[in-house]
Amino acid sequence: PEARCFEAIKAKSMTKQELEGAVGKDAAKVGMGNCMKNKWIKKDGDVLAAAVDTIVDDVKIQLSTVSSTPAETNETCLPAKVLTALKKRKLLSLQKRVSFDVSKGSSFSTTRKKKPADLTKEMIDSGEWQDADFKEYNFGTVGSAVGGGYLHPLLKVRAEFRKVLTCMGFEEMPTNKWVESSFWNFDALFQPQSHPARDAHDTFFIKDPAATVSLPKDYYERVVKMHEEGGSGSIGYRYNFKPGDARKNLLRTHTTAVSSQMLYKLANREGGFKPQRYFSVDRVFRNESMDATHLCEFHQVEGLVADYDLSLGDLIGTIETFFRKIGITQLRFKPAFNPYTEPSMEIFGYHPGLKKWTEIGNSGMFRPEMLAPMGLPENVRVIAWGLSLERPTMIKYGVKNIRDLFGHKVDMAADEDGARLQIRLKQRPGGLVWRLFLA
Length: 439
Known about the structure:
The chain is 33% helix and 18% strand. The strands form three sheets. A seven-stranded mixed beta sheet has the order 4-7-8-12-11-10-9, with helices on both faces. The chain is elongated, with a radius of gyration of 44 Å. With 439 residues, it is of the alpha+beta class. Helix 1 (2-11) packs across helix 3 (25-37) and helix 14 crosses helix 16 (432-438). The protein is built from 16 helices and twelve strands. The two termini are 66 Å apart.
């Protein structure tokens, strides 16, 4: 660049701007400085003029020397300081050249032949194995991963709920018996025999065997009396109790059918009543029209506490503790009606992302008309709450149609992909698990 700048200025004195137009801005920037450094040009005001008549272009000579020297030795054809300066100016670049000598080996062939890896029956029969060049076995290689079973998303969420409730001191109830009698499913809960939920369009009744053959006689009579005449401050329903309706077998409509049996056993256990906490997570069945959010069978999560002198405050505190452990801290309670609880409350949680309150469960205190026939002490109260398992699971895994989560339409590959997803309880307060419910 400096030689080009000198030749341009020698031909005609010019300003810096004119020089940039003659040789280019980049060449003028580098060349003018080197010309001034070598005292080839001088500056008179804003005009650049030649200071000598002729110059020796050392850079051109150096580059010619490198170019004319064989590549194997040109790295030493000039002093290291000069080569460094040329590389710094990006006039030279160092390239590494690797050479190989290629010659025919003992196994040279003009065609590729795949070596057999296994000894086959055909090779043995034909005798080909005797001359075959087998591929060597690599005993150090790692085998491919063996595929195994994958947990269904519902099972994952169920396991996390079980963990939370167990840590709170709850004991799981035996809920593996899906067929119950109408007595345990309805009557023992002080639900009248005229209630709409007991109609065939809401409940699946069993044809064979159609009726149960065994009920606790004394307890049955106390339940009948409570329905017909009342007790514990209640006037009852004042209707004629039908034994045939009570004995009808059905697919349980809620796991509270199991709760009623556990409370009866707790009241009549050897040694008398002792406070207890129970929970269950299992299937229930209802004769409903199926759509994207409803199936005829689903899972119910239920928890209950039986203890002396419990109050509505104890129910609220227990519910708040449970939901706080799964990441929901803002709760509201709304009065509601349930046939076998009084008072009853719907549970609402606030979602900060959606900025609204959403129903997430139901709760209440079991009525005295339900507890007194069981034989529980007068000052024993039972608090309970429940929610579904499918709804939080659908939200967690982004499932819009419940039939894609549970039933014969489930995509097995989706279960496998879902195995890579993990639910981390309490990862951050009000964060991940809250999105599990309402995101």
